[in-house]
Structure formats: C-alpha cells, structure tokens
Amino acid sequence: MGRQPCCDKLGVKKGPWTAEEDKKLINFILTNGQCCWRAVPKLAGLRRCGKSCRLRWTNYLRPDLKRGLLSETEEQLVIDLHARLGNRWSKIAARLPGRTDNEIKNHWNTHIKKKLIKMGIDPVTHQPLNKEAKPEESSSHAPHSADKHISENDGTGANSSEDNSSTPTEDSDLLDTICNDESLLNTLWMDEPPLVDASWTSIPAGEPNCNISSLPSWDNCSWLLDCQDFGVKDFGFDYLNDIELNTLEMGDKTVA
DNA sequence: AAGAACACCAACCGCCACCTT
DNA sequence: GAAGGTGGCGGTTGGTGTTCT
To answer: How many Å from the CA of A7 to C1' of B13?
Structure first.
C-alpha cells in the first residue's frame, strides 16, 4: 500500500519530553482541541512526530489522569477484565477512569503478572499453573478465584497504602457491581462504546457540584500548566466521568 | 563506596482498523 | 472496490532510579 511514515524522520526529536515541549503541546491542545495529530507538531511548533504528541497527551498531560500506583480494587478489576478481554489494554483502561492503557499494561507486566505467577496462576490463561486448563471451564470463573487469592494473600500488599480514595466496602461493592454486571460484560465483549453507568462514577446522586462547570475554566489554561505534574486528585478532578470528558473534548472540537 | 543487578515506566515502533476519496 | 491517509492499539525497548552485593 506504500504507507507513508507518520512523520518526517529527519529533524524529528525523540526521547523524553521537556517541560517546554509539554507546555507547547498543552497550549496548543487547549486552544485548538484534539484534532489532526499529524498537523499538531507543526502547528504547535514542536519537532515531534504527531504520534508522539498524541501519546504524550493521552498518557501524561491529560488533566483527568490519575497518578500513582493502582489501588487494590483497580488491580483486581484489571485482573478480572484481563481474564475476559485478554491484552486489550485500551478496553480495560476504558473501565478505569483516569488510567491509561499504557499505564495498565506497564502495571500488568511489572506487578500483576509476577503476583499471579507467585500465586500459581497463569497470567495468560488465569488458570492454575500446575493444572492443565480445562477447556470446558468458562474463563469467567478464574478471575474470581484469582481475586480471592489476592484478597487472602496480598491484602497488605505494597499498593494498599497508596491513594485508595474509596473505602474497602465501597471498593468491593464497586467490584461486585462490575463483575456481576452482565450488560457491562456483554458490552465489553461486543466492543461497544463504554457504558455510561452511575456505578462507574463516584459522584453521588444529586451531588450539586459534579457538573463540568465546576471545573477550572478551559479558556484560561494556565492552571493546567501549573498542575500537570500532580495527580488529578490533587485538584479534585477524580469525580470526572466519561460523559464529562467526552463533553469536554467535543466542546473543544466545536471551538476549534 | 562502587559496581552489578533489578525494577519501573515513558516512549517508540510497526501493524491494523477505520474513514475518505 | 481500491487506494491512501490517519488515529489507535499492543508489544517492546531503553533510560533512569533503586536495591543488592
């Protein structure tokens, strides 16, 4: 097909992003929205590949990102979703607000994989390592045993002291809801867009301050430049849900 | 204190799906 | 329907920080 490279190889900078480059990219996206990544480097005055810009934005600069290790609940959710979806990190990430596919992938490869192996569970099949996987056995059964192992054996794991914003009860309720939500699972299998379900957001029903208007203004983006190195929770954005973010993005596009 | 080994994660690469012409 | 362009995804790599010897 004679595919073109995504960018001119000559003169394109690689490697870690500088604060100056981050600033340029943020300024550009906040002004023009996310569109035509190929054109972004040129328009934003960056000597970067468009792909690189998109990756930098989605994995690091987006204001709705969480920081820090995955909580135990998030980890269990990843395990459960992985058992059903396999290495479809973007699908898994779509169910964890504020987390990126890259982040989840990295966490899986560095933490969860080892943890499962240590527990005698095959991280690929989610079946016990010492037993042959039974073909007739539904894979959806495995994650629950895996989760059980985790809660029994690793309840005091390294992540337990990290930024778990919800209580254990809330966490387990959320996980139960997700694991038992057939429509959700069906949606995941069917590759449909993420469900917009109240159970996926921590916004309490009737919460008065949960609309997009309570966010800092996007017209004046200087706040973002100052806060990009902090976690979302530092700014009280952890209540953002998919709807609001989509709205935000669409709004940007319409402005652009 | 210094070097080796290990762990972590940001970023790159190549492929694929989707959209437009 | 074919070709070309673009964005997105998943696998992998390389740099850096941390721990171990």
So the answer is: 13
What lies within 8 Å, CB to CB, of A124 at 6+ separation is none
Same domain, yes or no: A112 and A175: yes
Closest CA to A218 of A200, A196, A243, A237: A237
Whether residue A93 is found in the same domain as residue A127: yes
Give the bases of strand B that a protein CB approaches within 7 Å.
7-16
Chain mean pLDDT for chain A: 62
The number of domains in chain A is: 2
Share of chain A above pLDDT 70, in %: 46
Q: Is the CB of A52 under 7 A from strand B?
A: yes
pLDDT band at residue A113, thresholds of 50, 70 and 90?
A: confident
One domain, residues A177 and A96: yes
**Residues A97, A51 share a domain:** no
A55 touches strand B (CB under 7 A): yes
Tokens of A249: 């993005």
